[in-house]
Prior knowledge:
Layout: H1 2-30, H2 38-58, H3 67-82, H4 89-116, H5 119-138, H6 160-179, H7 186-203, H8 206-219, H9 230-250, H10 255-265, H11 267-273, H12 279-297, H13 308-311, H14 321-350, H15 354-366, H16 376-397
Amino acid sequence: MNLILNTNVNQSRKFIIGFLLLVYMVxxxxxxxxxxxxxxxxxxxxxxxxxxxxxxxxxxxxIYHNVFTDGYALFxxxxxxSCLWSPNIAFSIDITFSMFxxxxxxxxxxxxIKKYDLHSWFIxxxxxxxxxxxxxxxxxxxxxVQTNENWRFEGSAGNSNExxxxxxxxxxxxxxxxxRDVIRQWWVLLLLIPLSIYxxxxxxxxxxxxxxxxxxxxxxxxxxxxLFTVKGFFYSILLVLLIGTQVEMKxxxxxxxxxxxINRLSTIVDVATGSKFDGSLEDRKKFLxxxxxxxxKRPLEGYGIGSFVILEPSKHYSHNNYIELLFGVGxxxxxxxxxGVFEIMYRAVIYHSWDILFVVFLILIxxxxxxxxxxxxxxxxxxxxxxxxxxxxxxxxx
Length: 398
């Protein structure tokens, strides 16, 4: 009787922690605008408190960790040291303190998922957040955020590029989870994927498009024969009718925006060949040249975390994670940060988890055009990849 009672209590605790984890992931994406991030922070603190109480009640104090969580913590320590030679010490300290909180959160989320097997709660939180964004985009609900400013879909992120990354990694992590039976509802992917492609185009984000194309090569091209089965044909027609109806009813006013976004995305070919650069890419080229010159002068220690935006003449950040890290924390900090990422790639090879290896490779490509070392959702996406590798390790061991 006591055993049954203890089991029920443990399941109740697991449910509470899982529910808080799900709500946290929803709010992390839905309330990612600077003016309302406090909502996600409150949920984050509640999750930490419940997790700590649960560990105290069980008198279990073991903390799960891996190379990425430890590596990021060490990276934060080196960043704190780099504040000593920063041109703006107060600014660098603010960034470091924010990263310190992220390092603690990395351990929290990793332990929640690994200790209680909450992979599905994590991924459904992302899926629900994306679904709310799409309902907002179609006009069915209203989120207190800016949308379609300057004809690009910004969603709850308030930034088209950031929203594009949420969309892409929501799809990628969902597919990886489905292939490992973390989520088993095929209809979730049936709705999520085409809607995500549509809204990804509306973001007008080139990096989002490149990631989607590469990922399609990995996942969808080998499975294209499914479309020619009776079931595949039925589902395809159903999706066309569903999304087509929504576009006709709610999105006719965005046809011009869609056309402009497609035109913007078409410049990817020009950029790849070097034949043409638009204003945004011209700026990024200047940031790259400035970063290379400055990094060469102080390659080991850099100029202090976050210092690119301080020293760059136009006061912009670099739009490149590699330049941002080398500029701010030098080769030392760069190696510390990426050591955990490379360890994930190594484990993916050992466990023959080629899909995860490919995704990490996509992340490395993406970071050529975005700064992610202090982007909380991006860090948690990598944490989740490491938990999927733990599942693959468990499967190979069995």
